[in-house]
Specification:
This protein is α/β, with parallel strands linked by helices and 393 residues long. Helices cover 34% and strands 18% of the residues. The protein has helices at residues 14-23, 63-79, 102-115, 124-128, 132-141, 156-169, 187-195, 228-233, 262-275, 293-306, 317-320, 327-341, and strands at residues 3-7, 29-30, 41-42, 91-96, 147-150, 175-182, 219-226, 241-249, 284-286, 313-314, 343-344, 367-368, 373-380, 384-391. The strands form four sheets. The protein has a five-stranded mixed beta sheet with strand order 1-7-6-4-5, sandwiched between helices. A five-stranded mixed beta sheet has the order 8-14-13-9-10, sandwiched between helices. Strands 2-3 form a two-stranded antiparallel ribbon. A hairpin with a 3-residue loop joins strand 13 and strand 14. The protein is globular. InterPro entries: Beta-ketoacyl_synthase, Ketoacyl_synth_AS, Ketoacyl_synth_C, Ketoacyl_synth_N, PKS_Beta-ketoAc_synthase_dom, Thiolase-like. Residues 1-392 form the Ketosynthase family 3 (KS3) domain. Pfam families: ketoacyl-synt, Ketoacyl-synt_C.
């Protein structure tokens, strides 16, 4: 990994996001656009301002594509990669997202109902389709290698990382630009999650005794991955290494995790095996940690079984909310930053760990903790599980 970019409710850049997560500062706030709904909290991204959005046509893009482009541009800048100089056929783009351009969909549906079909914009489908974040990134940066969009619900960003790693390992590209992006804070999406009992209107408190759901969020995370030889040839400074990845499926329920966490545990153990490391080698865990009662309890049980040495655990969702399909990429980037600084960020909102949790969840302030290897978990509706193992360069 040679570059990363972040767009979150804490700010449209890496430093703002990392500062909020490192400080354990929640970005949740009452959302006027959700007035009248059972849940009115969200973590919205401030309007991004970046040169990549000053090109013709950018104003018509759905926010999910705008967020993705900004995060991708930041990652390329840090990696010191100039798309004007690369061979685009040796570059891949892999994106992860859960729902696509739902704000564009809402606007088109309103026009259809209120004014008729002739008033629906011809830009509706290019703004709504779930592959368009991937397509826009490829178009903007001249990528003519594989361009693939993954959708495994809240595991999407981590699924995209694994697919990109495979493209590099099989020689299909030298550079892979990975991006998870989501902009699903709409009245309909919030209502849908609320009807499932998944949302909180008091705040996200992963692993806390009083947790009652997550705060829905939007954002994007991007990472540049390169074949080691390619990075070395251009004297690129590596930030971290993606040394392991695995995925599994619960085959249990459409929206509930397996009660014993079998699929999640399978993915964690397989990712460690892929990385060639043991549980004792893992210095900290970036948990999926959604702040829902079921997920946190089941994930804690999995972590107890897999990691008897009890490495420090954190969840960024207390600070940033749940960015759904973008969360895996955002949290992988945060894990890279944690490894680089030798800290484990606190879990924002955590006041008293739920009884029986029995894992070492960091709370209050960031913990100085030098680690060589860390694990980042992502689990999603549909029983999708994806786990990444990251290491210092």
């Amino acid at each position: 990994m040679t570059g990363l970019g972040l767009v979150t409710a804490a700010g449209c850049d890496r430093d703002s996001t990392w500062s909020a997560v490192r400080a354990g500062r929640s970005t949740a706030a009452p959302d006027p656009l959700l007035h009248g709904l059972p849940v009115t909290l969200s973590c919205r991204v401030p309007e991004p301002d970046h040169p990549v959005l000053r090109r013709r046509g950018a104003a018509r893009l759905d926010p999910v594509d705008r967020f993705g482009l900004v995060a991708a541009a930041q990652a390329l800048e840090q990696a010191a990669l100039d798309p004007r100089e690369w061979d685009g056929s040796r570059v891949a783009v892999v994106t992860g997202g859960g729902v696509g351009g739902v704000r564009t969909q809402d606007e088109a549906l309103a026009r259809l109902g209120e004014q008729g079909p002739e008033f629906v914009s011809p830009y509706f489908l290019p703004g709504y389709l779930i592959n368009m974040t991937c397509a826009n990134i490829a178009l903007r940066f001249g990528v003519t290698g594989p361009a693939l969009a993954t959708s495994t619900a809240c595991a999407s960003g981590t699924t995209a990382l694994g697919l990109a790693r495979d493209l590099l390992a099989t020689g299909q590209c030298d550079i892979a630009l990975v991006c998870g992006a989501e902009a699903a804070v709409t009245r309909l999406m919030v209502t849908g999650f609320s009807q499932l009992g998944a949302l909180s209107d008091t705040g996200s408190r992963p692993f806390d005794a009083t947790r009652d759901g997550f705060v829905i969020a939007e954002g994007a995370g991007a990472l540049v991955l390169e074949r080691p030889g390619h990075a070395a040839a251009r004297a690129a400074r590596p930030l971290a290494r993606l040394i392991g990845h695995a995925a599994s499926t619960d085959a249990h329920h459409l929206v509930a995790p397996h009660p014993e966490g079998r699929g999640a545990e399978q993915a964690v153990r397989a990712a460690l095996a892929d990385a060639g490391v043991g549980p004792e080698d893992v210095g900290h865990v970036n948990a999926h940690g959604t702040s829902t009662r079921q997920n946190d309890a089941i994930e804690a049980a999995v972590l107890r079984r897999v990691f008897p040495d009890r490495p420090p655990v954190t969840s960024a969702k207390g600070a940033l909310g749940h960015t759904l399909g973008a969360s895996g990429a955002i949290e992988a980037a945060l894990t890279v930053l944690a490894l680089a600084e030798g800290v484990v960020p606190p879990t924002a909102g955590l006041a008293a760990t739920a009884p029986g949790t029995d894992i070492d969840v960091v709370a209050g302030t960031a913990r100085e903790h030098a680690a060589q290897v860390a694990v980042s978990n992502s689990f999603g509706f549909g029983g999708h599980n994806a786990v990444a193992v990251l290491a210092r360069p």
